[in-house]
Amino acid sequence: MHQSRWLITGAAGRIGVALRRHLADRGIALRSVDLATPQAVSEDDEVMTVDLRDLDAMTRSAEGCDGIVHLGGLSDEADFHDLAEVNIVGSYHVLEAARRAGIRRVVFASSNRVTGMYPADTMVDPSMPVRPDGFYGVAKIAGEALCRLYADKFQLLTVTVRIGSYEERPQTQRDLRTWLSPGDALRAFDAAMIADQPGAVFYAVSANTERWWSLNAGKQLGYHPEDDAQDWASFPAESYPPAQPQAGPYAAADFSTTRMNR
Question: What is the DSSP letter of 161?
């Protein structure tokens, strides 16, 4: 296959490690960056310690790369000031580094939490208005908006992947609707990295019988999930309160207020 080098932010995270191993197996060279130096997964994996808040460092790390998968940032609810500094400004730095380095492709790892306040009886499509369940979701929405801006204004080929509940196996009734299997996660990023629709957004969720999010946008980009949470769960599916937010416990007010530190 064509030799290329991809910059992976958040390279030390669970998805980051799995994706890097997968890409290395496909012969893709990597530049892996994180706040803590990640371990290399191949001989052609350049590892670097980079803070997303440092634009100059991000720009240097992007030089010579063909694309970026942006997985880095705070991964759950936190104080909004911290989320703004790391997730929002950090995502701007990634996109701006891509523009300055002449990189055309950026894949942004967003989250299902951008629509977590929709009720459980609603099938959500990426074309519907966002309804975040917390400040983390708000920060991801800002990242999605930045991707749309850089696609429209600077002609970057940005693709946003709204990640479901990434686990080895589903653990809860909510997971039966939101689970993203490790295998399907790799299929989602494979599709996103070659998609040719600037500004595209799709849900990375497995082909769960009880899912809440439409797969149509992903299928149009070549994402075809193969796993179903019900085949992997150790418990039967039960009815879910139709009016309850899809975010489940993440939608509770104290889930956000207890994480405020300023």
Answer: E
C-alpha 248 chain-centroid distance: 19
In the chain, how many domains are there?
Answer: 1
- What's the rounded mean pLDDT across residues 86-100? 98
Alpha helices, H only, 1-48: 14-25
- 197 lies in a domain? yes
pLDDT class of 3 with cuts at 50, 70, 90? low
DSSP line for 213-251: B--HHHHHTT------HHHH-SS------TTSBTTGGGG
Helix (H, G, I), strand (E, B) or coil at 67: strand
C-alpha distances in angstroms, 155 versus 60, 96, 97, 152, 222?
Answer: 21, 12, 14, 6, 22
Render pLDDT for 117-160 as a digit per residue (tens, 0 to 9).
Answer: 999 999 999 999 999 999 999 999 999 999 999 999 999 999 99
What's the pTM? 0.97
The phi, psi pair for 69, rounded to 5°, reads -110, 115
Calculate the average pLDDT of the chain: 97
Structure tokens at 168: 């080895």
Give the residue numbers annotated as catalytic, written as ranges: 136
Per-residue pLDDT at 251: 98
Expressed as residue numbers, the domain containing 171 is 5-257
Q: Residue 137 belongs to a domain with what CATH number?
A: 3.40.50.720
Helix (H, G, I), strand (E, B) or coil at 166: strand
Q: Report the chain's terminal Cα–Cα distance, integer Å.
A: 50
Q: Which of 97, 194, 114, 99 is nearest to 152 (CA)?
A: 99
Indicate if the pLDDT at residue 209 is higher than 60. yes
Tell me the Cα Rg of the chain.
Answer: 18
Task: Classify residue 199: in a domain, yes or no.
Answer: yes
